[in-house]
Amino acid sequence: MAHRAAQQPQQPQQQRRYDRQLRIWGDAGQSALRAASLCAISATAAAAEAIKNLVLPAIGALTLVDGTDLRQLPPTAHFFLSSPQRPHNRAHALVAALHALNSDVRTSFIPHHAHEFIDSVSAAYAFVLRFSLVLVADMPASHTLVRFLSQAAFRANVPLVLLRCHGMIGYLRVQAPTLCVLNARQDDLPPDLCIHAPFSHLQALADATDLNAISDTTQLTHVPFVIILTKALQLFRAQNDQKLPASPQQNKLFENIVRSLRPSHCPADALNFEEALKRSNLRLCYSQVNHIPPSVQAVLSHPNADPRTSTAFSVQLESPNHHHVFPQIVHYTKPRPAAHRIAEQQARFWLIAAAVNMFVNEAGRLPVRGSLPDMTADTESYLNLQRIYSEKAHKDAKRVLHFVHAIVDERGLDLDVDDALVISFCTNVHAIRVHSTSSISDELDDWNVDAFKEAAMLEGGLDPSGTGKASPYYPILRAVDLFHRANGRYPGSDTVVKDNDIALMHGYVATVKEQLGLQSNTGLWRHETEEMVRYANTELHNVAAFMGGIAAQEITKILTQQFVPLDNTLIVNMAEQSSITFAA
Amino acid sequence: MLPTSDDLQVIYGPNAAERVAKSSVLVVGAGGVGCELLKNLATAGFLRITVIDLDTIDVSNLNRQFLFRRQHVGKSKAIEAANAISKFAPDAQIRPMMANVRDNTFDVTFFRQFTLVCNALDNLEARRHVNRMCLAADVPLIESGSTGYNGQASVIAKGVECYDCVQRLPQKTYAVCTIRSTPDKPVHCIVWAKYLFDLLFGPDDDANVLKDLDLNRSPTPAQPKQNGEAQHTASAENGHSEPLDKHQNGQSPVPDSANGKHFEEQKQTDPRKRLRYSSDDTAHIFAERVAHRVFVADIEAQRAMEDLWRQRSPPILFDVTSAAKKEPVSLEKVDLLSQSVWDADHSAAVFMAVLRDIINHRVSEIGSLTFDKDDNHAMLFVAAAANLRANAYGVPLQSPFATKGIAGNIVHAIATTNAMVGGIIVLEALKIATSDGKIDKCVTTFVSQAPRGSRVKTILCPEMLTKPNPKCFVCSNGQPHVSVDLDQFTLKQFREYVLKKKLSMKEPEVYVANNILYETYHDLDEDDVEMYQSNCNKTLAKLNVENGTQLTISDFKQNLKCTIHISHTENLLLDKPIQERFVLDGNVPVPTPQADSNDHDSAEDVDADEVVEVGEERQIADGVADKSAERLGPGAREINSRERAQPDGEVANAHVPSKDRERDAGTKRPLEESNAREESQKKKARS
């Protein structure tokens, strides 16, 4: 083997190492991951698992903040901290262990508790600005540190992720004022063939095709449905004031036109005509302005995508108003020059979205994506059609690029945009998304009761006889936070007063029920409350491994700007493998 | 934080830690899921673990298989994983075995020693085998898999659905004619290039679809349909092809006139010469001969078959030798993982360079090489040759990255999903270990990339374990039904293709009434051995198997016994290679090449034009995921059916969540969208 390997031409090790993930998120996703700098506060087992799952695929940089002295913890079976020669500080020990997994990642740590030096919103603001994303583990949401971080990160547009494990219960919360998705990767979306706004080559091809004149039935049954629909729509428009079918009745009319195009000598079961009929409704699913899918329209109508008035094209950040002194970051590896910020990625996203807006204004449609679905056609006409779509896509992307440059010039922006990014933006323009979440700080004071109740009701979590649900644990976690604030510890963590804790917790849960407008004296969530006290603050490793997996998955989605991110809270009950998500 | 033993007690009751520590666990596979699983088992307090994996560590494993470091590349996965776990848990007894779980060593007695078995496998055959062994040994099995952002874990034991209860979709195959003469998708060109690699450098194999190229015979005269019937899509044209056997048997290798004429002009190549390398070739002469015969002479011969080009453009000739000279390449600098497309000239340069390089550096291996996506010569060859083929046929050219994905059936695999699946497996393992091997609390769990579900949106979906399929021949005395042409199929073919390949049996014995047709005892006397050998070469009809005969099959290795009903159908599936000329539990297709893929009545009834198998290689990796399949038995297609690739390997097999959940579509190979033209899922509730 070794002999053979030596004689083979060698491939770059880096790429081979990351091959399997490049096949998911591509070079662009990988570069985004490489450019990111993650800060993790508190190196619990779940956080360690999450970070491990980000270090392996090579996130750019990692800073771990934890002041825990491992000698003062009871002995635990922490997989990454098991080495007898480990350093005493937990952050240091974990960084050392993770560095061994992948030396491509720049690692550093701060051997102090975050709350010791992040003691105000402005301190938190100055701190979070250094990172692409902040992960906080094992911290009650009501902890002042979380409140400071939440407010600061929201203002600085730095995504914040909270991760908690209590026995069999896992909690994950994502906070981001805006999350821009370059490719939601929802492959079930219908292809946008621009039949409703045919470009000149498509129209020319349709015009040049005289179905009645094709005497060869083989040829006739292989005319692509795209051509048939283009012709049919032209006829419909001519009869209907140049308008598109807009009602079910009109659609029937349109279908009849499609039928009428089939020449009499055409076999009744011609698949291409069947496809045309089947698709005749397709374009109507984009019922919004300019036949743009609602999720894409949401991006284009966003104030940030306005070419003239948007303030999102540059990363304008207030500089921290105080000079905060943070503890020295200890660099385990060579430090990285500067953290890449999600805000910069987003500035480019909004700039291109604004350019697409200008394109839509001019062309009356989205840029052509250039890909064709399978269809009944002979090879030659399929290839020909593919060629004109791909050429048109190229042309459209160039036009969008032109608008990008125009905006940059007009607004005097200092932002370089890669041509390849513009092209890929246009290719996946149907799959761009924008999401935003509420802030955790706001959620603490005024939470989305309706969203929770809806999710809980669907799950059956408001039914006192239901068991094994996940939703009850959200209000119970809120009660846990109330308990923690009052007692400085988690319920059940002191085994001597466990029964007392249960009684206290029932009281806090009753308070939360009142907030929800539920009767506070019923047996609802009684069992779950007792379970939570029983779990105390136990961190089970396989629960930690699972939650670490999900947290890393969500962080990867945010950093690569691919796939649909979690909105915004996930509660998992690992005792029954049940879970819910809702927008808190 | 509490110490582990107390943690367990809190959740699983008194003595939980002791019970867990006493349990003995078998982990099959130390890949992506396997690494996570081993770590989680050890941290949960499992102290007696046996891990089996045949594979060695590759660089491309390091992005997720975190028990391995760069210095471990090339070493045994089982051994290195055990080392890593032992360091963490010095008290644990971790027993690594670098072996194939299908080896005879691992018999029912071996499996009986475990409290539970966890599968972290990547291939159907091994999964089915472990399933049978666990049922035979009466040991609970946790089955798992992951691909991209999707994963799952489930529990199998007596009384619930077993792995064989759900019929798995067969691998995608292509018509010989599509590969040999009328490719119209990149995958056709890539499959062709893999055959060409094996033809040139592999063992001499008469069954190679391109064998005629080696002997310089005329290519298979593929026959397009004569009538004007619609060919149903541009990508799946006629499924009519000549069976290969016809050309292998007897026809003399006469160079056809078109070829002969051209070769006269090409002095450096000898038309009578085989295409394969011979010791009097120089690397240069060999490369030019291959380039000429494959991309000039053969294309001319194809063009001469005018019937083929009535409805499509004929392929074009391309002078690879001259094109290669325009911009010569240095192979060391060619980036096989580049995501940009190679043009025809560059492909030509790589093609010629790699042919020469193989002769110059690996001549001793010629005759023993087979395509391997991790062999850079093989991958360079296939990437270049497939593009040149595509160039000739007007098929879009590909980047080497995309080609590798298709050629190696590579499926994406990432750490996060494996972490989730690993967590869930151990959750199930803890339930089993703390309840004396009972599985009544166990569930099947699916994890997905984005919150899904029409009601409760979530990324974790539990499902009750379901009842066994009464038609399952493994766990429920089901009796499979096989239709075959008894006058053509030999006993050997029946054993190999139906029993071993299709039904994943190991050493099946075949009985008809009281008559033994084939037996496998190791102490058979010579006469018996001779008789069984001669039986093997007889057709089933000659062995008195008739329409309606019930064969008794027994496989002692898998502790399996079942009855198979035989039906005779004359000239069944002649358009397919001999390996596929039978139908298992399905309607026998009407002999028309126009089988519509939407109307399959059985898993065997794949598109008639899909005959050449892809994805020969099998590798150990992360496990399966999602896809699924059809229940045994005609007309019983109840679950979603959609083909999925398996991490690092072949087709995955597992079923998707039923009920009202939507399948999320974000799991296709996103970088290969052009190839991901899978038909949209056929959804059917299992209600």
UniProtKB/TrEMBL annotation, chain A:
What family is this?
Belongs to the ubiquitin-activating E1 family. ULA1 subfamily.
Q: Which PANTHER family match?
A: NEDD8-ACTIVATING ENZYME E1 REGULATORY SUBUNIT, UBIQUITIN-ACTIVATING ENZYME E1
Species of origin: Gracilariopsis chorda
Q: Name one GO biological process term.
A: protein neddylation
> What molecular function does GO assign, one term?
NEDD8 activating enzyme activity
* Gene3D superfamilies on file: NAD(P)-binding Rossmann-like Domain
UniProt cross-references to SUPFAM superfamilies, sorted A to Z: Activating enzymes of the ubiquitin-like proteins
Please tell me whether the keyword Cell membrane is annotated for this protein: no
Annotated TM spans: none
Q: Which Pfam families match?
A: ThiF (PF00899)
GO terms under cellular component:
cytoplasm
Task: Please report the name of this protein according to its UniProt entry.
Answer: NEDD8-activating enzyme E1 regulatory subunit
Task: Tell me the keywords, alphabetical order.
Answer: Ubl conjugation pathway
| InterPro entries documented for this protein | APP-BP1, ThiF/MoeB/HesA, ThiF_NAD_FAD-bd, Ubiquitin-activating_enz
From TrEMBL, chain B:
Q: Which GO terms describe its molecular function?
A: ATP binding; metal ion binding; SUMO activating enzyme activity
* Keyword terms, alphabetized: ATP-binding, Metal-binding, Nucleotide-binding, Ubl conjugation pathway, Zinc
Single Gene Ontology BP annotation: protein sumoylation
* Residue numbers binding ATP: 29-34, 53, 61-64, 77, 122-127
Extent of Acidic residues compositional bias: 604-614
Q: For the Ubiquitin-activating enzyme SCCH domain, which residue ranges apply? A: 364-404
User: What does the record note on quaternary structure?
Assistant: Heterodimer.
* Residues annotated as catalytic: 177 (glycyl thioester intermediate)
Q: Where is this region: Disordered?
A: 212-276, 586-687
| THIF-type NAD/FAD binding fold domain boundaries | 11-454
Query: What Pfam family is a match, any one?
Result: UAE_UbL
Q: Which organism does this sequence originate in?
A: Gracilariopsis chorda
Q: Give the protein name, as stated in the record.
A: SUMO-activating enzyme subunit
Q: Name one GO cellular component term.
A: SUMO activating enzyme complex
Q: Which InterPro entries match?
A: ThiF/MoeB/HesA, ThiF_NAD_FAD-bd, UAE_UbL_dom, Ub-E1_IAD_1, Ub_act_enz_dom_a_sf, Uba2, UBA_E1_SCCH, Ubiquitin-activating_enz
In which family does this protein belong, per the annotation?
Belongs to the ubiquitin-activating E1 family.
Q: Where is the Ubiquitin/SUMO-activating enzyme ubiquitin-like domain?
A: 483-571
Binding-site residues, Zn(2+):
162, 165, 472, 475
Compositional bias (Polar residues) at which positions? 217-238
* Functional pathway: Protein modification; protein sumoylation
Q: Where is the composition biased (Basic and acidic residues)?
A: 239-248, 259-276, 615-630, 657-687
